[in-house]
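Interim report, section 4.2 (structural modelling).
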Amino acid sequence: MSTPINKTLQSRRRFLENISRAAGGAALFGIGLGLYSQQSKSLPSDAIRPPGVANETDFLSTCIRCGLCVRDCPYDTLKLSKLGESVALGTPYFDARDIPCEMCEDIPCVKACPTGALDPELTNIDDARMGLAVLIDQEACIAFQGLRCEVCYNVCPVRDKAISINRSHNARTGKHALFIPVVHSSDCTGCGKCEHACILEEAAIKVLPAKLAKGELGRHYRLGWEEKRKAGKSLVTPDLEHKYNLPEGTDYDYEGEGLVQPELTPFNESAIDRLNKGRL
Amino acid sequence: MAAKNIQKTLGQEAIEQKGWLLAHKWLLLRRLSQLSILFLFLLGPLFGLWLVKGNMSSSLILDVLPLSDPFVFLQILFTGHLPELTVITGAIIVSLFYFLVGGRVYCSWVCPINIVTDIADWVRRVLNIKTSLSFSRMGRYGLLAVSLLLASITGILVWELVNPVTMIQRELVFGMGFSWLFIVGIFILDAFVSRRAWCGHLCPMGAFYSVLGKFSLIKVNALNRADCDDCMDCFAVCPEPQVIKPALKGKGTPIINSGNCTNCGRCIDVCAKDVFTIKHKFISSNLLTSQDEVHL
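Predicted structure of the assembly:
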């Protein structure tokens, strides 16, 4: 017997059942997906983002994965991550050893981005910070063996600022110099041309995410000489010159005679010694 | 009805009545639309002709007109970021279009995955596969909520890390990774596990477009429902058969008002009695009153 009331009850029950089944399934799936997403937030260290990405989380929140930056890159540097790759699915990146960023002056990739995931306020490519080059293997880099190379230094688009050559003594030969490339984070854009050009089988200089490559001084820490330079004077109160509270007309003899009265003391030492002590 | 094998005879009467071509008119038009859109995206990478750049998540048409997927755009908003004007413009244009012609027109006339799931359903019919497992049709709304909620909790586009729809569309245009596994997976799911599981039950993108097109102007209607001879072909072919019943068998409006209707027009194709038409909804309701009175 199915009265209309029974029928309503039945359909209501079916509806509730349906809803709770859907909600339960979706919630369970959501938890799994949420946990998985935390893992995808970190960019693998060999992948470099295009210019204009300040922070990976912000990037993953606005990148719509349309690939317009990839299409407008004149050097085919950028590619979209495919399923199976460890970069967050569908997002643009490049592999510096493969094709580095050529640092176009008009930054077409940033201009192409419809969402602002690549920051439109980046108008000077020298301000880009895609990563930071690190001379990561000093054992393999031939400059450390005393050989002349400097390829990374010479290909650097910000040469002498982002990479400079520091000379130091070659202890092995005892008479030559080492020409050591040194990266400066103040000017390195992370374009990866150095990593691309490194002559070794496996590059000794690599572009890493800045977070991996950079250390940071304790926030309370100040370098005295820097502070002094900024202030134009020493910020520490200078020591007052020490004064003995001696009776008038007396002096203190450093060599153990104790208090002396210079005027009364006869010349009992050589004139040169006396001059060295600063007395007449 | 039990004697008739609906799987085998589906649409046959319509073919006899109208000819094969007219009995597949809407299906052919849809395939043409889906493949042309995909082809337009491929013109650039294959032949260097950049009429359309990007992919279906966001694109630039003829280097001027931005178009963006409003569902992915909505996820960006839920992360708490206000993106640039270009993508906002693109999303508004696309939203307006689907708001007018029907949200799930995206599913049946644009999305290439619909081709996969339609073929899966055809295989299911031809091989007479019957499985009892069914997902809730509310599941997609659950996943829609999950995708937006996770975006706001984590601050990143979590659904886009796994979204099979944008993934497959993107890799078709930008080079295939392993997303073909998802094509195969969705096919197996729909053909051998549960009928119309992906597009009709699980896809949150479809759910989003259902909501977007709820009040669209263009709707399928059962204007000539008095002619219905209960052959059930429309129910068998429809990807969302629950939307037909109120319009065809109910006493109210013959317009299929559910946002879940994809405006695919297959019911029009398979009906030998020309019960269904696709019209804008105001004309239909005027016609209805006079006609219904005659038949009643």
